[in-house]
User: Fold this.
Amino acid sequence: MPATIIMGGQWGDEGKGKLTDALAATAHVVVRANGGSNAGHTVTTSDGVFKLHLVPSGVLNPDCTCVIGAGVVIDPIALLKEIDGLRERGVATSNLLISDRAHVVLPYHPALDRAEESERGDDGIGTTLRGNGPAYADKVARRGIRIADLIDEETLLRKLTREVGSKNETLTRIFGVEPLDATEVYRTLVAAGSRLRDHVTASEMVVQDALDAGKTVLVECAQGAMLDVDYGTYPFVTSSSPTAAGACQGAGIAPTQIDRVVAVYKAYSTRVGGGPFPTELMNETGNTIRERGREYGTSTGRPRRTGWFDAVAGRYVARLNGVTEIALTLLDVLDTFDEINVCTGYRLNELSVRSLPAREDLLGQVSPIFSTLAGWKRDITAAREIDDLPEAAVAYIRFIESKLGAPISLVGVGPSREQLVPVTRDSAMLGAA
Ligand code: GDP
Ligand code: IMO
Ligand code: MG
Assistant:
């Protein structure tokens, strides 16, 4: 049976956690494909709010096998804290598997992340400071330490001795910050490795066996496609590929084994950290969206920047990722507006721009062309089927669908599990943009 990818269509925090949890109700395996503890995925159930960072959002379904794939970078201390927190709340984590090929985020990675951000000054990326970028940099430079190394004390000691020595040189000589104590780092990691050992496996084989056996496999991405290291708003991006292609690579699944790419978009836009954001609202409307949507980072608590829905960026992502369906979340946040804008084009120096400029300074200069739609001015949080939604809300859904060129199949009307409205697909309406 082919697999399904769940990915973010914007700059992250689109509600991937909630959607993965919902689809996991009927899935056998959920594989997290990319990112690290920079991610924060919220799932709200009758047992309360769960904030997941490294553990896949299928974990609240006890029948689901949850896999942290090879494409993820894992801070073992953060992962253990998350596992302990889940266990304390009665959530079983015995079905959690960790790829032996995944790279380890080591204590020098957050130290370097902090030092590099501070060196960037006003041009800061606004990273989550979780060490994500430096860990992926080491992976690509072929000097990373992997989970397979972490659980073998001798290998760990050998690789760690070399790496801590070299990273301490960088930390002290280039950045003028305190070095790390190699012995202490080793001891902490050995202890963490021994606690994680039973979860470690060749996870790509588990995933392939599940697909061979006709089981339902979901791939959960972190971040969003506009933060992709190749096609996002570089350099204001994350260091992995939160795309459909990245999902395949990170999970150990071939593109030919995928038949469904679900992109999650919010009904408006947010981004955290620096970088161009063409539809940003630096006014009361932006504040209203922030407060109504409780737009504060799940991992860092930072206020998120807010703006209208950007259908130019949205369509770019839908095309590049072969999106087969869309989940439009947080529609309820727009309940109080008289009018709602959607960006349907960019203008740069009086000219209309067809695609997103690669240069960040040019993307920073584009002005959005808006279409204005009527608001519905009604509380939609109790809606459970399309007929419960006001006409203007359905018109908004259809408008976005037509601009993105992919069908919207689910709409989010609140944070909890059951606040999802299935929307009839109507492919005849698509492709009008
Ligand atoms: P993720 O990183 O994509 O999993 O998203 P986050 O969990 O970081 O951020 C999404 C936020 O929106 C969380 O606080 C969710 O509880 C919340 N949320 C998800 N879907 C909806 C929705 O349809 N309506 C509202 N009001 N909140 C939602
Ligand atoms: P989820 O999975 C939103 C952003 C950071 C920063 C940039 C680089 O919850 O959607 P990094 O720490 O990755 O080097 O930071 O990427 N960022 C996210 N923004 N949601 C996320 O994850 C993010 N993960 C990273 O704010 O701008
Ligand atoms: Mg998030």
